[in-house]
Amino acid sequence: MSHKIVVGYDGSESADAALSFAIGVARAQGGSVVIAHVLEWSPYSFLTPTELEERHMRRSEELERAKSALLDPVVAKLSDSGVEVKTALKYGHIAETLCEVAKDEGADQIVIGRTGHSSLSSRLFGSVAGSLAQAGPVPVTIVP
Amino acid sequence: MNTLFKTAPLSAAALLAVSTPAMAQSLDQTINDGFAAATGWFVSFIFSPFPGTTFPWIVAWLVVAATVFTLYFGFIQFRGFRHSISLVKGDYSDPNDAGEVSHFQALATALSGTVGLGNIAGVAVAVGIGGPGATFWMILAGLLGMASKFTECTLGVKYRNEYPDGKVSGGPMYYMTKGFAERGLPMGKFLAVLFSVFCILGALGGGNMFQANQAHAQISNVVGDYPGWITGIVFAGIVFAVIVGGLQSIAKVTEKVVPFMGVMYVLTALVIIFMNYDMIGWAFGQIFAGAFTGLGVAGGMVGALIQGFKRAAFSNEAGVGSAAIAHSAVRTKEPITEGYVSLLEPFIDTVVVCTMTALVIIITGQLVSDPETGLYLLNEAGTAIQTQDGNSGVALTSAAFSSAFGWFQYVLAIAVILFAFSTMISWSYYGLKAWTFLFGEGAGKELAFKIIFCIFVVIGASASLGPVIDFSDAAIFAMAVVNIIALYFLVPVVKAELDSYLTRLKSGEIKKFN
User: Fold this and answer.
1) Does A4-143 carry CATH code 1.10.275.10?
2) Which positions make up the signal peptide (chain B) (predicted)?
3) What residues of chain B have any CB closer than 8 angstroms to a CB in chain A?
């Protein structure tokens, strides 16, 4: 069976380490990699009227920026790695959305870095790695 | 120049009498007199009663419309309540649309524009003049108003403008022009222009001056009396920083804190009500008895009814058209879903929050009644009910809450400032939308409006309660005059949307995502 690995990727050093680990595994097992980037978003946050009006425009800009500045370069870099690579770009709660991507793609594994772009809130409310370890639908590998 | 107000209808005269004592500050006085002189005629017109009665035609206008929509849509506010909750929870939202404005966000933003001083100060004015019975009529108006809101917000989304850059503009101006054109009706453009003019006045009045005025009243209530223009200038400076300087971070903080303040306000009210649980039955007795007899208030039963209806409309803005502007940015393929969501707004605003204020004022015994007859005693002018410490407006609410928790006046002062501020930000946006509809978009034109808006903050904080509250009411109700005419002509559109949506919901074509 072909091995499919979802990598949570945010451009941090730790995410790069996770990605190269995943590429290594995929190459060894003849599998493929899904590079998933999640834009943090809650439908229950509060916006001002101006933000409301501009939301659709901002969303398009954010998606475009994530694609051109983050995902496209990394895919280009991996073009000669010999591993089949595709991307997923989503809005939502990071850990939950990574789980969804894994389910939708029928992946057998999730790989993430231990510390992404960590913020104060992740220190207070638990990190993505912690949540995934608890809630992941498939085996989760956390790369230091 | 005050004679204008003496000839104004009951409400204006009554409010003037309960307004704050003559201020020594001459600058405030000058602004106040000038303001009363400039706006008196407008106020008199909007609140003129039906000939031979004391019943203002504008109140009937709003209630009749809300009743017509309620019947026309078969009590949608009750039938559709559960579906509304379901939509807000995101049960019907496509996960692939994450990152777009959700139903919850549109509702929360619209609510932060309406939940404000109307709920705190406005209700105190209603109960202070109309007695506990005003609460009954206020709740009734809130329930009926849910249907008006349903209608206008559906239309707001249906006829919004979506620009190539992804921005969205919607509101009554757009359904008046596009909706009328689509149905081959004349006068759409005329109504839209008229609405925009009133919307600008409403933004400067109820959405600005009334807020600044009551925020100042509450602050000076806590820290002692000082000239209103000082509060005005500070507020104007912060508002300026946000709407002109683009300091969205201040607005963002407010948007986040306001909902928590709202929840805290309701919880505190509930605690006070349950602390006096033996009085709950009595309070509801007063509300029902007062609703139909008036219990001695000025104007009797009709007086209670007018106050209740007026305050409800001013607080939840159903039929006014303002919410249609805020709701139109939501991401949905079905305009009717936003109608469903918006009907929760008058419910939360009026049926829940306003009722809490009224109950706390009644239960804590702020209103003075004659122990022998059970009727309320009126003040010397005979225009409002005597209160324990002679308070009115926001000070009355503050006194009621503080009688249970002394510290609450400080929390209330902060809540009032934040509510006032978030309402101002919302209304500066509504006003700006109307302004750009009239004069076109452009940085210079937008800046002109924003500066005018800030100047009115200072005027509002300096004027005494009477003239400001009257003008605020008048401007906001004038929007409703135009908006409801448009709604009458466009209801068949909403009906068609509703029928089609319900059919597809039943057939399973529209399904839940989670």
Assistant:
1) no
2) 1-24
3) 90, 93, 95, 98-102, 104-106, 108-109, 112-113, 162, 165-169, 248, 251-252, 255-256, 258-259, 325-326, 329, 331, 425-426, 429-430
